[in-house]
Amino acid sequence: MNEDATIGNSASRNAALAGPGGRPLVNPPAAQLLGRRVISYDPEAGRGAYVYVARPEFCNRHGTVQGGVLAAMLDSATGFTLIESLPDGLTAVTRDLNTRFLKPASPGEIFAEARVTQRDERGAQVEGELRSPEGVTLATAVAVMRFVRRG
After folding, report:
1. CA distance 142 to 100
2. Which of 15, 18, 32, 139 is the most interior residue, by most CB within 10 Å?
3. Where is region (Disordered) located (predicted)?
């Protein structure tokens, strides 16, 4: 998918990707801070691929991306993959995010994939993975999410 089909705040960027009922997808402030762009998204299959941009300000004293920022990227990817597949009036909150840090992450692009692995009437489990541009797995997570009514 090209840059024009990624999620931003403008309607033209959102036109190529849409949630249930054709509603436009939006990047909330935290996703914008993390530089999230959607590479591909299939709400029916419960799968999504994303790219995040780890800025130098996200680094720790060792010059690698802080683990909490990586966890935020995983929370973002797993949450988006589930939430955008839900009908209007329903959202989900993360109850548990079990994260494993496998390799240090450098500033720059970080790729994420997420997939819904279990789902029932009360919630879902979503697995996520972060990879370097070279394809090295940096971190993985399992998110347990609970459905809640919006507003």
Report:
1. 9
2. 139
3. 1-23
